[in-house]
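agent> Task received from the user: take the single chain below, predict its 3D structure, and emit C-alpha cells. No templates, no multimer pairing.
agent> Plan: (1) validate residues, (2) run structure prediction, (3) serialize to C-alpha cells, (4) report one or two observations.
agent> Step 1 OK, no nonstandard residues flagged.
tool_call: predict_structure(input=
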Amino acid sequence: MSGASIRYLIKEGFRNTWTNRMMSVASICVLLSCLVLIGSASMIFLNINSLVEKIENENVIMVYIGDKTLAESNEENALDIDSTITQEDIDKMGEQLKAIPNVQEIEFVDKETAWNEQLATMDDAQAQLFKEETDNIPLPNAYKVTVRDLSQFTQTVNEIKKLDNIYTIRQNTDLAQKLDTISRGISVIAIVIIAVLFAISLFIISNTIKLTVYSRRLEISIMKSVGATNSFVQLPFVVEGIILGIISGVVSLGAVWGIYELAISRFSDLFNSIGVQPLAFGDYAWMMLGIFVAIGIVSGVGGSLITMRKYLTKEGSEISAV
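)
tool_result: status=success, residues=322
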C-alpha cells in the first residue's frame, strides 16, 4: 500500500468519523462511561491504599535501649537502665538496625524528648507533680524503626531481638499482618474491577462498531467489488477507533476530575473528622490521561479490527451480493 493510499485512508477515517457522527457519539459515550467508572474506582482505591500506607508507617517498632538485667534487679538505680550505655553503643545499634534488609528507616528518640512529649499529654498539675517527684527520667533512649514490607514484620522483629543492649521492644504483629492482608486485598480487587470494566468496554465498543459496519455495508460492498483488500477496507475504521479513543480519554479525564473534586467538597467534613487528607487529583492527572487514551485507542482499534475481521470473513458473500 503506497503512502498516497495511506494518507487517503486516514483522511477517510476523519471524514467518516464526522459523517457518521451519531454512531461516533454513541461510541464515545459508551467508552466514556467505562473510563469514568475505571477512573473513579482507581481514585477510590488509591485513596484507600494511601490511608493503609499511612497506618503502616505509624505501625513502627520501638526499640528501647538499656540493660535489661539492671532493669530487672532491685537496685536503686534500676530506673536508670541506660546508664551503662555509651554513645558508641547507641551509634553501633543504629548501624546494625540499618543493616537489617527489611528496615526502611530508623529514627533516634532521646529520652528527654520522649519524656517532654509525655508531659505535654498531661494536664498542668499532673505534669508538675511528675516533674517534682521524678528525679531521673523513667524512660530509656529508643530507636523508632519503620519496616519496608509488613509481610516480613515478625522476621524483622526477631532479627532486632538478636542485637545487644536492647531493654525491650514494642510492636504490634497482629496489626501488621492485618494491614498486609488489607493492602494485598485492595490490589487484587482493583486489578479485577479494572480488568472487568476494560473487557466490558471492549465488548460494547465491538458491538457499537458492528452497528456502524452494518449501516455502511453498501459502502464496504462497493469497495470490495472494485478489488479493495481487507486492509484497505479496515484502515479507515482503525483511524476512527484511534480518534474516538483519544476523544474519549480526554473527556473521561475531565469527567473523573470533576466528579472527584465534587466528592471531596461534599465529604470534606467527614475527611476532617477522621483526620484523612484526600489525594490531589492533579498528581495523577497526566498518568491517568495516558492510561485513558491508551485504553480508548486499544478498545477502539481492537473493537474495529475484531468486528471488521469477522464481518469480512464470515459475511463476505453477503457483501458481494449487495
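agent> Step 4: summary for the user.
The beta strands are 61-65, 103-109, 142-147, 166-170.
agent> Done.
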